[in-house]
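Meet our chain:
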Amino acid sequence: MIKEIQKEVQEITKWIKNYVEEARADGVVIGNSGGKDCATVIALAQKALGSDKVLTVSIPCNSIKADMEDAKLIAEAFDVPLIKVDISETYQALEKQIDKVIMPKEEWRGREAKINTKPRLRMTTLYYIAQNRNYLVMGTGNKCEAVVGYTTKWGDNAHDFNPIAEFTVEEVLQIAEYLGVPDKIIKKAPNDGLGGLTDEEKLGVTYKQIAEYIETGKTEEKAMEIIVRKEKIAEHKRKPIPVYHRL
């Protein structure tokens, strides 16, 4: 856990402000899914830059209505604008066109491809908006997700900078509580709003177990096996893009 939360938050907000200024950007855009991670990043950005330089975007794609209501709650809590860009029809049109020309090798691959296309379209949306406003796209992924690869390559793990990437879920919640993220959001079971299951149900382990593994190198035996396997498989997601270096 974070020992000096006030000092840590001060350093994070200072880092955000400096990064945006050095990039000569006019502000930041953040995907607002109604979850704790994006709420924490929104709170940090608002504290660092002010409400007028933070734009949040709800990007439903056949999504749960409650998540959009939570996104509105977060935006109101930190007095930042929220716009909605519904990409449901865009996704359906793309899926229809691809399904005409190619079939997956296995059914489960097809399901995963369709699920992962949604966050990639969401990130495309954020960059479209960012370029129009001379804004930077802020990431909202935490360390637990990165370790087990619970991210979509070129989707939610694509961004210009990320203030919470080195914090576990429990530490993100600590920052969220300090900054006044609504209690409803803090207590909400983490989910991606895409597959109908919570994050922990999909992963087969809890975020507490992942954090314990990160901090101590071990956790419960069964969970440890799952985490180590996922960490190894997801190594390519954490590394820079490999480039051949010419002779």
About this structure: The chain has one domain: 5-238. Residues 61 and 87 are 5 Å apart (CA to CA). The beta strands are 27-31, 54-58, 82-84, 135-137. Residues 107-133 form the longest helix (27 residues).
